[in-house]
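debug: dumping io for the single-chain case to check the tokenizer round-trip. Nothing else runs in this session.
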Amino acid sequence: MKERFLAIRQVLLQILVLNWLVAVLKIVVGILFNVMSMVADGFHSFSDGTSNIIGLVGITLASRPKDEDHPYGHKKIETFTALGIAALLLLVCYEISRAALNRFFAPVAPDAGPLTFIVMAVTLAVNGWVVYYERRRGAELKSPILAADALHTRTDIFVSLLVVFSLISVRLGYPLIDLLASLVIIVIIIMTAAQIIRQVFDVLVDRAAVDHKMIEGLLLAHPAVKLCHKVRSRGPEDDMHIDLHISVDPAMSVDASHQLSHDLQQEIKANIPGITDVIIHIEPSHRLK
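debug: decoded output
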């Protein structure tokens, strides 16, 4: 397990460095050439790095053993970290919006020179490789964090294509498209922040993390389980906790019921990625009649 955490952390660190290098490159070149959409995309790439930090925090805390004061672990620290990142994204949106308004009232002609196209081509190539690499490593390591981050990065490709479109428009003599593209990117960043806030809220209020019907169907397939009910779930996608009740034959021995509970726990964890803890309460079937 420790080797798995170290491997996931190494992938996230590599992606973090790439995201922030690309972000700095786009922001610097965007400012030098007065391309607002590229600057906005640069800050969007910077926000991608913050999602890598969330993953790094989560992996670091997940690798720490539970202790007497924290019997459920330290995962909610990651949740509060996500709130701070959402606030940072909203602050970035405010700054980009203010710059866009200033550009609207005091127009500055952007310069879509060859260097801007080269930077965006590099960005698209890096994002494409990141999606492929994270998806492959996520599947190999069975990591929900890497799989989710790969999907996030895939959306960045569309944002970068929007910037390329705005650069082409500037070259064709439509500089206003650059300003409009930056506003679209602002909306995308706001939607990202809203998604983070919603996920944090779901974790803090212990919203059901798994489809209970799926778990019931999985357990009822076992011949010894007469009934499965009172299924509850909570937690983030990579640290879900499940507790439930099952009814069994009253004549089943303690040893047999204990082994059944252990087998069912392993069955649930094997079929539903991200579950770290399963508590099964066993009761005799006659109590339900």
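debug: round-trip ok. The chain has a mean pLDDT of 82.
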